[in-house]
Design a protein that fits this description.
Elements: H1 4-7, H2 12-30, E1 35-36, H3 38-45, H4 49-57, E2 63-64, E3 68-70, H5 71-82, E4 88-93, H6 97-105, E5 113-119, E6 129-130, E7 133-136, H7 141-147, E8 152-155, H8 159-171, E9 176-179, E10 192-195, H9 198-213
């Protein structure tokens, strides 16, 4: 049984691993696997089995000693926690190279995540249509995002423009923002910003590969 109170108090590191767990659980389920133990799941996810058990324990009684975990049930649990059954309509801010890549992909592996509108401040792009999207000015963000019922924003603008872009997003009432600029931005209480720093992620990967995996 899921402990809903604990779900609201999940450690940030645990919460960040939940989508990873769900991804691999769906792969296992599609392959016909119905039961798995933490050691086996560790081999699939490359997450330590002790970490998996600790993460799962935050959510309540998900498995049984000696039996392991029921894969279809775990998929149901993580779908519920991550709310992936409800469509999330996304605004993309910044139509540079990274923005174009995100639009082209548009979360094909999850049909409930969908970019529905695109914004940029480049006058050469505004009003043009690319990949099926009209590029809107940031001056239109509040109006367009409300018309499109946007609840999540992704910003790919450079760090020097990140704060101003986030300010516009926050002013529109959106409280969930994925920021591809590494520098931290200031947001009001109740607004959640997740940062994606590709350089830091790559450096972390190289560190683990050189210092831990080979030790």
């Amino acid at each position: 049984m899921i402990n809903e109170t604990k779900c609201k108090e999940l450690p940030k590191a645990t919460a960040k691993r939940l989508p990873l767990y769900l991804r691999y659980l769906k792969i296992l389920g599609a392959s016909g696997v119905t039961r798995i133990k933490s050691k086996e799941f560790s081999e699939v996810t490359q997450v330590a089995s002790a970490t998996i058990r600790r993460d799962f324990s935050h959510l309540g009684e998900l498995g049984r000693s000696g039996y392991g975990y029921d894969v279809p049930y775990l998929i149901e649990v993580f779908n519920s926690i991550l709310n992936t059954q409800e469509e999330k309509r996304i605004a993309l801010v910044g139509y540079g190279n990274l923005g174009r890549a995100l639009v082209n992909n548009n979360f094909r592996r999850n049909e409930n995540l969908k970019i529905v509108c695109v914004f940029d401040n480049n006058p050469e792009l505004i009003g043009q249509t690319f990949d099926g999207f009209e590029i809107h000015s940031m001056d239109e963000f509040d109006t367009i995002s409300q018309e499109e019922e946007v609840t999540v924003a992704i910003t790919t603008v450079p760090s020097q423009y990140s704060q101003s872009a986030v300010d516009v997003i926050v002013d529109s009432g959106i409280t969930a923002i994925l920021n591809f600029a590494p520098d931290r931005v200031s947001v009001p209480e109740g607004v959640h910003v997740q940062y994606i720093d590709l350089t830091t992620e790559l450096q972390t990967l190289i560190y683990f590969d050189e210092n831990l995996v080979k030790s």
